[in-house]
Amino acid sequence: MAAEPELSAYDQLTPKQRAFVDALCLEPNMSGRKAAIAAGYNKAGAAVEAHNCLRNAKVRKALGERLHDTAPTTEEIAARWDRVSRATLDDFYSIRKVTSPTKIQQPLTAAIAAVEQSIKYQHELMIRSWPVLDTSEEDQAKELEQHKQWVKQRQVEILNYQLQLEKDHLAFRVIDGPPETKKILELDLMKAKRRGVLDLAKSIKPTQHGFAVELRDPDAALDKLARIAGAYKQDNEQSRPIVAINAKIEIIDTGVPLASSEREVQM
């Protein structure tokens, strides 16, 4: 008769002890008391129960087994560091062209010339349009009278500019200038999501200047990869405990985030 397989330390625990081990494996930073409460132990005596569990040899062995099973492999850790080392700002930002109106100063001498040119142009357009539109003589007379009133308003405008020039020969008026096109850098969370790199941003926070993006440090990641590969002969990093990559790189952006079309984007 074949011998029954030996039960693992985890399988030999009570239901509450297994729940205690599961709670700690799911949240390694959880306190023993909170893990005991999550496992169903009485809240009042949770601290004592946690202490007893952690002194139990089978519980400690089960914790070791479970953590070993859930811990990332060297290959998985190397793959993560490789992704961090390859992340660039291009993954999180997009360049967009923005056209905005401008204002320019026009000397009043040029303004007068522009108004006079406008008067001549409007008169010529009116006269030439009559045959095209087959305008009756009666309508032509009405239109001509309206044009004369419009011309008087323009002449008053010219007079105003002339009076200003008498006081200041450098006087000017502000008019619309040619539109200005410039490129701006914008935080693009949709782009980062499409590239699958949102997890590489430690945080994205609004500031008075725009958005500050905090990324994992690629230089630290490259250093870890080099140590895994044995690049440093005198420093065998493979045998040392793994430390988290938390270095901060802050990028300030003056644009708005391009994620308004998909609000469910989350870090």
Overview of this protein structure:
- With 267 residues, this protein is an alpha+beta fold.
- The protein has nine helices and five strands; from the N terminus they run αααααβααβαββαβ.
- The chain has a three-stranded antiparallel sheet with strand order 3-4-5, with no helix packed on it. A two-stranded antiparallel sheet has the order 1-2.
- β3 (201-207) and β4 form a beta hairpin.
- α1 (15-26) packs across α2 and α1 (15-26) crosses α4.
- Mean pLDDT is 79; it is low at 236-267.
Query: Structural class from helices and strands?
Result: alpha+beta
Instruction: Provide the residue-averaged pLDDT.
Output: 79
Distance between the amino and carboxyl termini: 56 Å
Give the CA-based shape. rod-shaped
Strand order of the largest sheet: 3-4-5
SS elements, strand count: 5
The whole-angstrom Rg is: 38 Å
| Strand content bin | 15-25%
- State the major sheet: 3 strands, antiparallel
Low-confidence stretches: 236-267
> Can you give the helix content as a percent range?
40-55%
Count helical runs.
9
Written as H for each helix and E for each strand, in order along the chain, the element string is HHHHHEHHEHEEHE
